[in-house]
Every structure is written in C-alpha cells, then in structure tokens.
Amino acid sequence: MHMNREEYAEYTKRHAPRSKAGRNMLRAFLTGGFICVLGQGLLTLYGRMGLSEESAGAAASVTLIFLGALLTGLGVYDKLAKFGGAGTLVPITGFANAVAAPALEYKTEGRIAGTAAKMFVIAGPVIVYGITAGAVCGLILWLAARI
Fold it and tell me: Are 96 and 63 in contact (CB under 8 A)?
C-alpha cells in the first residue's frame, strides 16, 4: 500500500487514540483542589478551636499527613491517585503517600531491612535536594546581604 504524505496524515489522524489530557488536567485540578480545600477547612477549624495561626497551620499539616498515610495504608490513596493523577502528588498528602507506600510494600522484609530501610526510597531524594536547595539559597541570600 503506497500513500502520499496527506493520505498518511489522514490515516494516522483516524487511527490515533484521542488525547485524554483535558480530562486528566480537570481531574488533577479537582482532586488537588479538594485536598487543598480540606486543608483550609482544617486550618479554619483549628483556628476556631483557639489555636494560633502558626499552631493551626502545624495541626492542619499533621492531620493531612496522617490522613495521607492512613488512606495509603487502607489502599484508598492509590485509587484516588488513579483518578486524580498529579492532583494527589503535589499537596502534602502526596508526600505522606510517598513515605508510607514503600514502607508497606517492603514490610515482608522485616521492620529494619524492609519498612525502615525502604520508607524514604521515594521521598528521600526529595528531602535531600530540598534541604540542599534551601541551604544554597540561604547562603546566596546571606552573601548578597553582606555585599
């Protein structure tokens, strides 16, 4: 079968799968937005309970981390991630999932060699490079203030 460029372009256009990018972006936006709304709700709740703004922020963060780890352990976070994609990765709950999931995956190897050793396989590099970037930026700002 011989085709010219135009015929081949039409053929591939007809047989190529449609992009799901629009749907995926909407799902990520809604899922990440829901997590952030939940965080804001917790912040407001803790503030109304009498905590200072700083303490309410810390309590909301800890609650979201706990919920992310709990939902990972129950197998719910994976289902949420299949639906919401990147919307579940960006918020703090995604970090909790990144720590809890490898720990659960390697628990059969024991508490030390499995759970403890593998817990930061995914989150470890993020922590290391985040701290390094923070230190470098802090050093740059400190040096810039001296000049």
Answer: no
Residue 94 pLDDT more than 80?
Answer: yes
Q: 39: phi > 0 → left, psi -120 to 50 → alpha, else beta; which?
A: alpha
Residue 90 DSSP symbol: S
Query: Which backbone phi and psi does 16 adopt, to 5 degrees?
Result: -75, 140
Instruction: Give the residue with greater pLDDT, 89 vs 63.
Output: 63
Is the Cβ–Cβ distance between 68 and 96 less than 8 Å? yes
**CA pair distance 72, 104, nearest whole angstrom:** 9
Give the DSSP letter of residue 87.
G
Q: What is the average pLDDT score of the chain?
A: 88
pTM passes above 0.85: no
Extents of the domains making up the chain: 25-121
